[in-house]
Amino acid sequence: MDWTEIEQGRTLSVPDRLSIRLERLILDGTLQPGEKLPPELELTERLGVSRVSLRQALHELERRGLIDRKPGRGTVVLSPADARDASGAALAEVLGSTGGEIAHILELRSIIEPPIAALASQRATPRDLVQLEQLVDEMASPESKEHYAELDRAFHQAIAQYTHNPLLAMLNEQIANLIAPSRSTALQTQERRDTSTAAHRRILAAIASGEPEVAEHEAALHIGAVREQIEHAAAALAAGATGDGAD
């Protein structure tokens, strides 16, 4: 991990900019659960920030349940799906029992994600909105099909994170693990990618404007469109066609 690559935004405080970039690395999987961050002094030198700013950023990520900090052990990355009691393991077992059926997964998404978007529209902070906007902007010119899939997953996980309810973030992370087959490049097309990006922009706009009903509606429309696109792509694949895109 090249820590010097963390860019600084212009509209937020230094701690907020740092927390956004570090959170992004966790959301997109660059920083994996269990991975240990460099010592604070080393990070401040690489990032060119004060120790106070870094500690404030890390405190924000700890408050959001994305890292765990303990004296003598350092800072360790957590997954939003890491449960702090037995309920997390039970949830994972129940969700895992679906066998990865895409139809079942999308049905679950249609029930869970629209209310999550509505709640995020009421709770997302300006700092949170910057993260969502950056994710959507990158979707316009992804480096690859795989990169787009990573951005897509990070966008939906960020929305759940911005309800500021750790249980919803945990649930969404478990669902995201099961969604992976629906993001397979074999089931994706350019049309699906463009449609999804446009839908993400509408969801973001609704969240940013604080309109829960609109956010819920746009999220529901998006999942419905994803279902139709996957069914079409799967049929084309079965007929011998190939595709490239994302959800």
UniProtKB/TrEMBL annotation:
The HTH gntR-type domain extends over 12-80
Instruction: Identify the PROSITE patterns for this entry.
Output: HTH_GNTR
Q: Does the keyword DNA-binding apply?
A: yes
PANTHER family from the UniProt entry: TRANSCRIPTIONAL REGULATOR, GNTR FAMILY, UXU OPERON TRANSCRIPTIONAL REGULATOR
Q: Does the keyword Heme apply?
A: no
User: In this record, what's one Pfam family?
Assistant: FCD
The family database entries (InterPro entries) matched by this protein are listed as: GntR_C, TF_FadR/GntR_C, Tscrpt_reg_HTH_GntR, WH-like_DNA-bd_sf, WH_DNA-bd_sf
Coiled-coil stretches: none
The name under which this protein is listed is Transcriptional regulator
Q: Which UniProt keywords apply?
A: DNA-binding, Transcription, Transcription regulation
Offer an example of a GO molecular function term for this protein.
DNA binding
